[in-house]
Write a structure and sequence with these properties.
Elements lengths: L4 E13 L12 E12 L2 E15 L9 H10 L8 H29 L6 E6 L6 E11 L2 E7 L16 E10 H9 L3 E5 L13
Antiparallel strand pairs: 1-2, 2-3, 4-5, 4-8, 5-6, 6-7
């Protein structure tokens, strides 16, 4: 992936000053422009670099002599636009969204584990990082504290969210778990997620 980054300079304000006199021509007609440099990533501003810079020019004779009093006045007036922090704002928004999405996902998963329902499908994760394997369990019957499940036929070496076309739940090999065992699996992070109300898109209705 190609990332384009670097520095850019842009004008953030422009003023016409008529309060100070140009010494060469004695006119009171000075154009004042304020600039700022910023770091960008793919041309999206990330943060300003250094302070604001000012340029001034007499519109009558073109003299570019800077007057400190004029400079200080307009530097204080010119405000750095908030969009110069666009990338940082975007990162904060994405991070905040991910945090709340992940928290709600974990909350929903725990609710499903605490109150299991027939046809729920559990994505089971065992191991860590690149060595983790994934499989599926499908609840077929709940009787008191006993939860009967079918396991799928294949084991996956990477994350999957649905059964492949050649995979299915094995109906002749029923496993029986207690609710406390499910909660323990949840606490060990073995239950990666719980699918409920999934329809036909995940292949979870394929039982042989």
């Amino acid at each position: 992936m190609l990332f384009i980054f670097g520095k850019r300079r842009t004008r953030i304000a422009k003023y016409i000053d008529s309060d100070s006199i140009c010494y060469p021509c004695k006119a009171s007609d000075r154009e004042v422009q304020v600039y700022i440099e910023y770091f960008h990533l793919c041309f999206i501003p990330v943060f300003p670099i250094g302070g604001k810079q000012i340029e001034m020019r007499c519109r009558n004779c073109g003299d570019e002599t800077k007057l400190e009093s004029v400079e200080q006045r307009y530097l204080s007036l010119a405000k750095t636009p908030f969009y110069f922090y666009s990338a940082l704002i975007l990162c904060v928004c994405v991070g905040t969204y991910w945090f709340y999405w992940n928290r709600n996902k974990e909350k929903q998963k725990r609710e499903f584990v605490d109150k299991p329902s027939v046809a729920d499908v559990y994505i089971i994760k065992k191991g860590e990082s690149d060595e983790a394997t994934y499989s599926f369990l499908r609840i077929v019957k709940i009787s008191g504290d006993s939860i009967m499940v079918f396991h799928n036929d294949l084991e996956y070496g990477g994350f999957v969210s649905k059964l492949t076309d050649d995979d299915y739940f094995v109906k002749d090999d029923t496993l029986v778990l207690s609710k406390s065992e499910l909660i323990e699996m949840q606490d060990r992070d073995e239950i990666y997620s719980v699918k409920r109300g999934y329809g036909n898109g995940g292949g979870f209705n394929c039982i042989r």
